[in-house]
TrEMBL record:
Residues 1-248 form the Tr-type G domain. The keyword GTP-binding applies. InterPro entries: EFG_II, EFG_III/V, EFG_V-like, G_TR_CS, P-loop_NTPase, Ribosomal_Su5_D2-typ_SF, Ribsml_uS5_D2-typ_fold_subgr, Small_GTP-bd. The keyword Secreted does not apply. This is Ribosomal protection tetracycline resistance protein. Residues 628-645 have a biased composition (Basic and acidic residues). It comes from Micromonospora tulbaghiae. Keywords: GTP-binding, Nucleotide-binding, Protein biosynthesis. Residues 622-651 are annotated as: Disordered. Coiled coil: none annotated. Pfam families: EFG_C, EFG_III, EFG_IV, GTP_EFTU.
Amino acid sequence: MALLNLGIVAHVDAGKTSLTERLLYEAGAVSEPGSVDAGTTRTDSMDLERRRGITIRAAVTSITIGDLSINLLDTPGHPDFIAEVERSLAVLDAAVLVVSSVEGVQPQTVAIWRALRRIGVPTVFFFNKVDRGGADVDRVTAQVRHRLGARPVLLGTVTGQGRREARVHPVDLDAEPVVAEVAEVDDAVAARWLTDRPVRVRDVRRALRRAVRRAELVPAVCGSAITGAGVRQLCDVLADLLPYGEARDGPPAGTVFAVDRDGHGRRVWLRLWSGRLRVRDRVRLGDGRPEPVTEIAVIEPEGVLVRRSVSAGQIAAVRGLPARIGQHIGDPPRRHAYRFPPPTRQAVVEPVDPAQRLAMFAGLAELADEDPLVDLRLDEQQAEAVIRLHGEVQKEVLAALMEDRYGVRVRFSGTLTACIERVAGTGSAEERVRERGNPYLAGLGLRIEAAPAGHGIEFRPGIEPGRLPPAFVAATEEGVRAALRQGRHGWPVTDCTVTMTASRYWPRQSRPHQKFDKSISTVAADFRNLAPVVVASALRQAGTRVCQPIERFDVDLPRHTVETVLALLGRLGAVVHDTAVAGGYLEVSGTLPSARVPRVVAALPDLTGGEAVLTTTFDHYAPVTGEEPPRLPRRGPDPDDREAWFRAVPR
Ligand SMILES: Nc1nc2c(ncn2[C@@H]2O[C@H](COP(=O)(O)OP(=O)(O)OP(=O)(O)O)[C@@H](O)[C@H]2O)c(=O)[nH]1
Ligand SMILES: [Mg+2]
């Protein structure tokens, strides 16, 4: 059976979860559509999602339409959870972008549309909420054309718009407006149409399919996720016009896009691109040791069912693999990664009751495993948890999760702008085994070099394979990554390549008549603990530069306020790139350090009588010039004092 992995994506509250529920009902998977407002949907299954009526985690369900099996991925719309959407897009075959026909194109619609285009995901629009007062399908069609630069092909018309009785009527593929749109991108259809010869439905369908796959045209359906109007038609379009995921032969290749826990423990969710993965197969992730798959559950219309294997194209929840989000099995197809904006704020999490410190860390460690944004920083003396944030809702959600799941009440202190450190030059360092007070049974050399912006951290074993047991290479990488979470100025270091240039270990040994003896044999911890010492001196040599997030801003200013507002922006370090006059307003756009945004937001209402609206989005990181945003105190031993490190982390 053909299989389609379909994402449902949109701005917050556009109706993704309601539409997912309605599709389940339409396909006969549930006998009654669940409701977001009553907390009875299948995909908003976390307590917190049901209480708040918002989606926090992407969730998969499955339906069958004719010969086509569809995995539906319902995603969150709130910008605080954009990272979750980013992870989901990486494993999809196609997407439905839901746009409310009342609110129209919203900021997150634009962000998600750009991501879909960049990754090349074939898309269908669903113009939702035609049953609500204020709905205007023509307006939203024009908006997606102008604001998104998309070419929608509207395949339905609506009657009774804005009322509960609104109905949607299909438009035939050989109808004039459809053919006109398709003729724009298909020469064969254009040739017949322009010479007034009849255009056959099957030719239009073929041309339309091709244009959807190439993302030249976007089929659009209108309707209501609540009354079900237009949803049947959406199903037809999905089955008829979208390209199915191809199932390729070959060795298994997959991408891990989520991690969660159920009553039986930890599961990793992966999409298999090619081959087949069976229970008891041993799988290697990165440079680690091969680990056996102990259980496979595949998403099927009846639910998540335990199976002996998962095959190419499918999504499965797998137990046994210590995989992290974003890791790959085998060699997956290269997709254009799209980076949504990184979190630009950070805060320290503390337990309200100091006695719950350990319980808090245990809980946060699990949440960090499920959400890579929860950035836990620990050291021996003073445990502290720092999380990177997109916004206030994310904070609330984390606090509620900690209380619901682990019974720990937490509070946040000191929300700060999250800067990064970039490596300035090149630095090398080496620690030899048992020399100069090195207490660990390991020798290690590392070279750190600057890499282009956006590169992230790349670790290269750099030595011939087999020279060092894989477990020691993995432990070194772990130690390197942990050390880079705090650079010389206390910010995470990124955009660099770290190469292992030397290594030495003592093989497993035992004394006569005894078992393995750790005191005379190297263990993984020796490499994990030595790595930060070598990183610290290599970084000292390379040098780092603190960079702060810079936002792009847009603001419309009433004419009489222009002078005072521009003066304020200038004082706060803004750079104006563009201005345009529109009506009585001056549209101003430019860039501004994130750290200054709150001050502009606070001052605008008074300066403009509440008339100006400022929108900002992350743009890039730039070296701090002038006043550095406040930073968290650096934790752990002084990076320039090796002995202090050796004392702090004894062997
Ligand atoms: N009248 C009407 N209301 C709708 C429709 N679709 C969704 N709603 C309502 O809009 C609100 C948001 O719907 P959801 O389905 O939770 O939207 P969502 O896109 O999943 O929201 P997030 O996951 O939080 O981003 C709920 O109160 C729904 O009942 C529709 O077609 N018509
Ligand atoms: Mg939702």
